[in-house]
Design a protein that fits this description.
The chain has one domain (about 25-240): Rossmann fold (3-Layer(aba) Sandwich). About 30% of the residues lie in helices and about 20% in strands. It has 7 helices and 11 strands. The strands form 2 sheets. A 9-stranded mixed β-sheet has the order 2-1-3-4-11-10-9-6-7, sandwiched between helices. A hairpin with a 4-residue loop joins strand 9 and strand 10 (about 200-205). Helix 4 (about 90-105) crosses helix 5 (about 115-125). The protein is globular.
């Protein structure tokens, strides 16, 4: 074998190794903010919402993010009374995200839920939702007001995957009118807003090694924000194990 052939063989092997090191993250429905939050040279990001054959990408996945969006159809948690207070539904997205959640749960794939994604984690685990926070809980805390607002949340437990700060309260962004109501025992509340609504949860490790979710939007927080960065770093470390 000539020196050039040996050199080309080494380059091919190195490139192959680099390709194998790339990790694939599936977003249930992508937007620019989620992509910017997770993208780097070692990551492939796929938008499950735009791909017809979901089974093909699940064979590649290293991590899953259930992203924010429209209301979940209340029939997903056997509730008919909430339908009148909901906005538009996306039934195909409900089905897709249940499939992503079930795959992550069964195969121990790291998963983050954001806003709607946290609600879907609860629903897919057997929980229910408040249909409309202002009418069911009140307006002590404003979670949405013609767009994104900010409010404080209080730590009720610890989770280093989400919160790096040693503090009792943190200001977060908020843009939702529904929230977690009945929760299964294997989801643990980490933070609540001052009206008692769960704002961050984690699945018990005896059920799954890494499933975390927040009701706010870390992908829209600034690049220097500790929560945004801690959640990303924890997720990346987990998918690289």
């Amino acid at each position: 074998m000539t020196k050039n052939a040996i050199f080309l063989l080494i380059i091919t092997i190195l490139c192959s190794c680099q390709k194998q090191e790339k990790k694939t993250i599936i977003l249930s429905k992508a937007s620019e903010n989620y992509v910017k939050w997770m993208e780097d040279e070692n990551t492939i990001i796929l938008d499950a919402y735009t791909i017809e054959n979901t089974d093909s990408i699940l064979k590649l996945v290293d991590g899953i993010i259930l992203t924010g969006g429209e209301d979940i159809n209340p029939l997903e948690y056997n509730d008919t009374t909430n339908i009148k207070v909901c906005g538009d539904f996306d039934l195909s997205r409900d089905t897709l995200e249940r499939k992503l959640f079930d795959f992550a749960f069964e195969n121990k794939i790291p998963l983050i839920g954001v806003c709607r994604g946290m609600q879907m984690m609860n629903v897919a685990s057997g929980g229910t939702l408040y249909g409309d926070i202002p009418t069911e809980i009140g307006t002590e805390v404003i979670h949405r007001n013609n767009g994104e607002v900010n409010h404080e949340i209080v730590m009720v437990d610890t989770c280093s995957f989400i919160f790096p700060l040693e503090t009792d309260t943190i200001m977060v962004n908020s843009w939702h009118h529904q929230g977690l109501k009945i929760m299964p025992n294997h989801l643990r509340v980490i933070a609540r807003s001052f009206d008692g609504l769960p704002e961050a949860v984690v699945m018990n490790k005896d059920q799954h090694p890494f499933m975390i979710a927040v009701q706010f939007h870390p992908e829209r927080l600034g690049k220097e924000n500790d929560i945004r960065n801690t959640m990303r770093e924890s997720f990346v470390q987990e998918i690289n194990k």
